[in-house]
Amino acid sequence: MLLNKRILVGICGGIASYKAVELVSRLQQAGALVDVIMSERADEFVRPLTFSSLSHRPVYSDLWEPSGRAAETHIALAEEAELLVVVPATANTIAKLAHGVADNMLTAVALATKAPLLLAPAMHQNMYTHPATQANITLLRERGVFIVEPEVGRLASGEVGIGRLSDTSVLLGAINVVLGRNGDLAGYRVVVTAGGTQEPIDPVRYVGNRSSGKMGYALATEARDRGAHVILISGPVVLDVPYGVEVRRVETAIQMQDAVHDAVIDADVLVMSAAVADFRPAEVATQKLKKSGSQEQDEQNGFFLMLVRNPDILEGLADPVYKNTGNERSGRRLVRVGFAAETSNLVVYASAKLIAKHLDLLVANDVSRSDSGFGAETNKVHIFHANGAVEDLPVMPKIGVAAAIWDRIVSLLSTT
After folding, report:
1. Mean pLDDT computed over 40-49
2. 102 and 139 in contact (C-beta within 8 Å)?
3. What is the pLDDT of residue 301?
4. Which residues partner with 337 through β-bridges?
5. 3-class SS at 344?
6. Half-sphere exposure of 352 (CA within 13 A, CB side)
C-alpha cells in the first residue's frame, strides 16, 4: 500500500516530535518516498540530520532562504505529494492551518497542496481542550482534514490527560486508511471473523483451539487499506485492533453466529477465517468443578464431558438472499469465503467443504506445517474456487496471503 507513495511528513515544534522519528523510519522501510518538512522550532527537539538519515532525502525548513529556491521547492513538494501528515500537530500550527496562514515552509506547502491532510495533534491537555483549539479542529474537519485523536496518557508535564501523540502503529493505520480510501474495495461493506471461540465448561475452564487470529486480522487490515468498511468479529485474541476497523468481540460460537447474522444484513462479503469450535459442552457448570467429589468422575479419576454440536455459521448462510428476524438482504449477493485448517488430506477435505457449504472461495492450509500453523507469521494456502479451480500459493507473510485473497474477492465482486 505504501510502496512508492509520495508522503510529506510535517514536524512541528513539540516534545512529541521525537516520536515522528520512528514514523519516518517505518514509512521509508515500507517503500514510501518520504520528504520531511520542519517548522521553525522543530529542530530544537530533533535535528534535521536525524530525519534525512532515515528518509535518505533532504529535509526542508527554511521558506526564506536567500537563494529564493524555496519558493519553487514548496510548490513542487505540494504538487508531488499524495499525502501530507503533520505529526505532532501543535496548537499553533493547527490554528495556522485552520485560518490559511502560510508563514513557514510547512504551512505554505499545506496551503498549496491538493493532497489530503492528516493531522495528529499532541499538546498539553489544557491547550487541546481549549475552545479555540477545538473550534480550529472542527473547522479543519469540515474542510475534509483527517484528524487522529490524541490519546489519554502521561504528558511531558508529568500530568495524565488527553493530548498524548497516538502510537506509531495508529498513525500508520490512519495513513493507510487515507491513502486507500479510493481503493478497489471502496464503497463495499465486508465482514471478517477472526480468532478461535471459547466454549465454557465452568466459570474457569473452556473448550477451545489454538487460533491466534493473525490471519483474520491481516484480512481485516488489507480490506481497510483498500477502502472497505470493515466489521471484524473477533474471538478472544491478544492482538491490537487495526485502526479504522469496527470490531465486535465475542467468545462463543453462538455469540459469533449472532454477530455474523447481524453484520451480514448490509454486507457485500463475508470472510469466515475464525476457527469456530465444532462442539460445546452440553451443560455449563455455574461453579468451578473440583478435581474430586464430582459425579462426572469415575473411579480412575477420569472426567466425562458431554459435548453437543455447534451450529455451522457458513452453512446457515448458504442462500444468496439471507433473512434474519424479518430483515432481508433484498436480493443482494453475499460473497462467502470460508477457511479450512487441516492436518491431512487437505485437498479432499477442503474440496468437500467448499461444495457442502456452497462457498465462492475456500482457503485451506495445513496447520501441521511450522510455516503455516496457528500463531505463525507466514501462511501456506490453497485457494479453492467454486468453478473447480485450485490455486497452490507459495509461503508468504499473512498480509501477503490476505492481499491475494482480496484480489480474488474483488474479481468476484466485479462479476456480481
Report:
1. 92
2. no
3. 66
4. 271, 361
5. coil
6. 6
C-alpha cell at 206: 473452556
Using CA atoms, how far apart are residues 163 and 134, in angstroms rounded to an integer? 12
- Per the DSSP assignment, residues forming a β-bridge with 259 are none
Confidence label for 32 from pLDDT (cuts 50, 70 and 90): very high
What is the predicted pLDDT for the residue at 165?
Answer: 95
Give the residues across from 364 on adjacent strands: 340, 382
Residue 367 has pLDDT above 60, yes or no: yes
User: Would you state the pLDDT for residue 221?
Assistant: 97
Is residue 136 part of the annotated active site? The answer reads no
From the CB of residue 35, how many other CB atoms can be counted at a distance below 10 Å? 24
Distance CA 405, CA 40 (A): 46
Closest listed residue to residue 312, CA positions, set 262, 272, 362, 366: 272
CA dihedral 401, 369, 232, 363 (to 10 degrees): 60
pLDDT of 304 reads: 83
Terminal-residue alpha carbon distance, the chain: 26
Distance CA 94, CA 136 (A): 7
Domains of the chain: residue spans and CATH: 6-179 (3.40.50.1950), 189-413 (3.40.50.10300)
Neighbours of 415 (CB within 10 A): 7
- Active-site choice (209, 310, 365, 379): 209
Decide if pLDDT at 356 tops 70.
Answer: yes
Q: Kindly tell me the burial class for residue 386, based on how many C-beta atoms sit within 10 Å of its own C-beta (0-12, 13-18, 19 or more).
A: middle
Q: What angle do CA 354, 277, 295 make, to 5 degrees?
A: 145
Residue 380 to residue 363: CA distance in whole angstroms? 10
Q: In whole angstroms, what is the distance from residue 246 CA to residue 232 CA?
A: 6
Peptide bond into 281 cis (omega under 30): no
45-70: burial string, b at 16+ Cβ within 10 Å, e else: bbebebbeebbeeebbbebeeeeeeb
Rounded distance, CA 101 to CA 106, Å? Answer: 10
pLDDT higher for 40 or 49? Answer: 49
Contact 17, 41 (CB under 8 A): no
H-helix or E-strand spanning residue 125: helix 125-129
In this prediction, residue 375 has a pLDDT band, given cuts at 50, 70 and 90, of: confident
Q: Identify the CA nearest to 51 among candidates 85, 81, 17.
A: 17
Give Rg (Cα) of the chain. 26
Reported as type and span, the H/E element at residue 6 is strand 6-11
- CA 113 centroid distance within chain: 28
